[in-house]
Structures are given as structure tokens and as C-alpha cells.
Design brief:
397 residues; alpha+beta; FAD/NAD(P)-binding domain; 12 helices; binds flavin-adenine dinucleotide
Length: 397
């Protein structure tokens, strides 16, 4: 008996950035997609996200950029300063210079605006379906396809793409060798009104302040109406259960910035409500594909946020997965292994560079002075060149 259209669909566990990006990439190929999403409804909770040209180039091809641009802010660059002295160290220009160099903008967006735009475009494909309040619990596969057990019963499809994020439950059922470890840092995030931001820091760009054992990032989102603030501090993880964010107490955070220059310290003092993310790393997986099942996004290769690339990597994954399926006659059994092979090196490098960047941000003593000297003397060309490997990415390369 032949299978119904829905039984022949690609199942995607998780409707976050990776899951929805994959829905679009497969939808463009005319493939049927069913997303199983754990939550009952998406909330607009969340924080800012920076999208480099490697990701916005793909979003542009998909028609997502058009829907996103009104709510996004085109970044003119990153202004790097020493948080302790307030001294300006360097500017990485992402405005006209970056656009000319990489062929796509650097965008500053609220995560829920990105999510809405992805969902809008995914919904424009007739083969797209999303099942909310469907938590994927486990899966079985045979040559006939994949069956996913959810809290609402079993759902069949021709393949399974696991996009259930950093704390992936389904990853445990594949022999990936995943080992997660806390990196000794917590990311505190807040959203404030743009009008509350100290005047010298207004503008369409990212401020990055480096300090001993801490750093601070701020940039406008929501069309410039709000400012996303991220303060990363060295800290112990309070042993909370797994999961993402929890509420943070400003009274605990602010003293970490007492020794800082008043301008960046003022930014931290301005924000009243915070959410806190413990930062974890995961070494590159041994493998993330098993037959017609593969992992994607944070489930496959979480990236610490210091390069602002976790979401970007998920978007790249989706585009590469679609291209690989195209190359292998849409056969997941053939395509998923080459997809993994195409992604493992780049995502591992991004993860490594991100960790390295984080260490540079938090330097103290003589290392800090040496870092500042290097940054102050680096030409614009040299600053940008360091990002070429990241931002010049093309799917067919
Ligand atoms: C502090 C911080 C700052 C960051 N800044 C940036 C940045 O500037 N730029 C950038 O590109 N990235 C950034 N990131 C990373 C980025 O947010 C993630 O890489 C990205 O969200 C990963 O997308 P994902 O879809 O793989 O996972 P997620 O966004 O976690 O989505 C997973 C989805 O799966 C659902 N789900 C979970 N389990 C199940 C299940 N069993 N069944 C069904 N559904 C399930 C969840 O509800 C969710 O909808 C940052 C991260 C942090 C912590």
C-alpha cells in the first residue's frame, strides 16, 4: 500500500531557528515537512540575536530578509572598548564596507522577530505542517521510514531531522558520544528601551566591552526601539536543573561591574530585569547521523555565543541539508551522511573560535594590555580579514 502524503513527510523535531529554517529549505524543494514542537504556543520571550552575512545571505535567498528588515537593524559595525577604562580600541566596520565585502548585511534582531519571519515563510509552502504541543520522546526507524513517539501518539515520516536544541532529548538515542560541560560563565540578558540607553551609546551598531573576567555586549533590536544587553561573567553554575534561562537578580550582577568605567557600567545599572543562561560547551560529536535520522542546529553542534553564530550555523545547516538532498535525489538515507561530513569541520571551527574569542574578551593583567595594543594597531582590513572564513560562506562551496 502506498504511503499517505503526511507519512511521506520529513519529520522535524523542534520548531526553533534550525527546525523552521530546515522547513523553508525543504519547502523550496517541494518536499512535505511536519514539525513537531514541544511548546503549546511560541512566546515572544527571548533576547537579541546578531546575524552575520553568512546567515543573512541565505535568508535573503529564501525571502525571509524582506519580512525581517522592518524589525531588524542593519549594523554599522562592532565598536570594541576596554570596559575598565572606557577606551575605544577598534571598530569592525559591517556597514557599507561589510556589505561590499560579503554581499549581505549584518543584522541585529529580536529572536522572536526572526522566528516569526521564518514561520511566515515556512507556512507559505503547501507541504508545511506544524504540530504544537507535540514533544518528541523517542524514535524507531526501519527501511520503510521513521516513527516518532510523542506525548500525543506516534507520528510516521520518511526521515527525522532532530532540531530540539542544546538540551536535545533525541540526541541521547544516537551514539553521538555527546559530553556537555559548564564553562564557568553565565550570560545575563536584558532588553531595555532605547531611550534609556546612555546617549553616547545610541546608534545602529554593537558595543562590545572587554573586562577582566567579564564582558558586555549591547545592540539595538525591534527596529531600534529596544536595546539588547548581554553581560557575561565568570561564575559558578548554581547546580540548577538542565534547561535554558532563569530569572536573575540585578543586585547580584551590578557589583561585578563596580570597578568598570562609568559608561559601560551605567548600561548594566540601567537594566532592571535579567534572564540568566548558564553557558555550556559540547565537544564535536563522534557522529550525528543514523540512517534517515540526522541532527541539526544546537542539537548537533552548540556554539558558545562569543562569535554570535549559533543561529547562523543552524541556518547554514538547513541550506546545506537541502542542497545535499538535492544532490542525492532527495533520498535521506544517501544524503544525511554527506550532510554531516559537509558540516562537521566548519561547525567545529566556529565552536573553537568562539571559545577562543571568549577567552580573549576576559583577559586580565599583562595579557589584557597586549590584547588592547594589538587591537588598537590593527588595520580595518586586518580586522575584517579575520572574519572572512566565517562570513564568506556560500552553500555550494
Ligand atoms: C546568551 C546567548 C546569546 C546568543 N547570541 C546569538 C547571536 O547573537 N547570534 C546567533 O546566531 N546565535 C546566538 N545564540 C545561539 C542561538 O540562540 C542558538 O544557537 C539557536 O537558538 C539554536 O537554534 P535551534 O533551533 O538549534 O535550537 P533552539 O532555538 O533551542 O530550538 C529548539 C526548539 O525545539 C523545541 N524542542 C525541544 N525539545 C523538544 C522535543 N523533545 N520535541 C519537540 N520539540 C522540542 C524547543 O521548544 C524549541 O522550539 C545565543 C545563545 C545564547 C545562550
Amino acid at each position: 500500500m502506498s504511503k499517505s502524503a503526511s507519512e511521506n513527510a520529513f519529520l522535524i523535531a523542534g520548531g526553533g531557528i534550525a527546525g523552521l529554517a530546515t522547513s523553508i529549505a525543504l519547502g523550496r524543494m517541494g518536499l512535505a515537512v511536519r514539525v513537531l514542537e514541544r511548546v503549546e504556543a511560541f512566546s515572544d520571550e527571548g533576547a537579541g540575536i546578531q546575524l552575520g552575512p553568512n546567515a543573512t545571505k541565505i535568508l535573503d535567498q529564501w525571502g525571509v530578509l524582506d519580512r525581517l528588515e522592518k524589525k531588524a537593524v542593519r549594523s554599522e559595525g562592532i565598536a570594541i572598548g576596554d570596559g575598565m577604562t572606557g577606551e575605544h580600541l577598534a571598530t569592525v566596520p559591517f556597514g557599507k564596507t561589510g556589505l561590499e565585502r560579503y554581499g549581505a548585511p549584518f543584522l541585529l534582531v529580536h529572536r522572536s522577530d526572526l522566528h516569526d519571519a521564518l514561520l511566515d515563510v515556512a507556512r507559505s509552502y503547501s507541504g508545511f505542517e506544524i504540530k504544537m504541543d507535540h514533544e518528541a520522546l523517542s524514535f524507531k526507524q526501519s527501511t520503510a521510514g521513521v516513527a516518532v513517539t510523542t506525548n500525543k501518539g506516534e507520528i510516521e515520516g520518511r526521515a527525522l531531522i532532530v532540531a530540539d536544541g542544546f538540551w536535545s532529548r533525541l540526541r541521547n538515542d544516537i551514539d553521538t558520544g555527546a559530553a556537555l560541560s559548564f564553562v564557568g560563565r553565565m550570560a545575563w540578558r536584558s532588553l531595555i528601551k532605547a531611550s534609556d540607553m546612555p546617549e553616547p551609546l545610541h546608534g545602529p551598531w554593537t558595543g562590545l566591552w572587554l573586562g577582566k573576567g567579564a564582558h558586555l555586549v549591547h545592540y539595538p533590536v525591534c527596529g531600534g526601539d529596544k536595546i539588547n544587553i548581554v553581560a557575561v561573567i565568570a561564575d559558578r553554575w548554581g547546580g540548577r536543573s538542565e534547561g535554558w534561562s532563569h530569572e536573575g537578580d540585578a543586585g547580584f550582577l551590578v557589583p561585578h561591574f563596580d570597578a568598570w568605567n562609568d559608561l559601560p557600567a551605567q548600561v548594566v545599572r540601567t537594566a532592571e530585569t535579567w534572564r540568566v543562561w548558564p553557558l555550556f560547551k559540547m565537544s564535536p560529536l563522534r557522529a550525528w547521523t543514523q540512517g534517515a535520522i540526522t541532527l541539526i542546529g544546537d542539537a548537533a553542534h552548540p556554539v558558545l555565543p562569543f562569535l554570535a553564530q549559533g543561529g547562523g550555523m543552524a541556518i547554514e545547516d538547513a541550506a546545506v541539508l537541502a542542497k545535499t538532498l538535492e544532490d542525492y535525489d532527495e533520498d535521506p538515507w544517501q544524503a544525511f551522511q554527506p550532510f554531516e561530513a559537509a558540516r562537521i569541520e566548519r561547525t567545529a571551527r566556529t565552536s573553537f573560535e568562539s571559545r577562543r574569542m571568549g577567552n580573549t574578551y576576559h583577559m586580565g593583567g599583562v595579557m589584557r594590555l597586549a590584547r588592547n595594543l594589538v587591537l588598537k594597531n590593527r588595520s580595518t582590513e586586518a580586522l575584517l580579514k579575520r572574519f572572512d572564513w566565517l562570513y564568506e560562506f556560500q552553500v555550494d562551496k
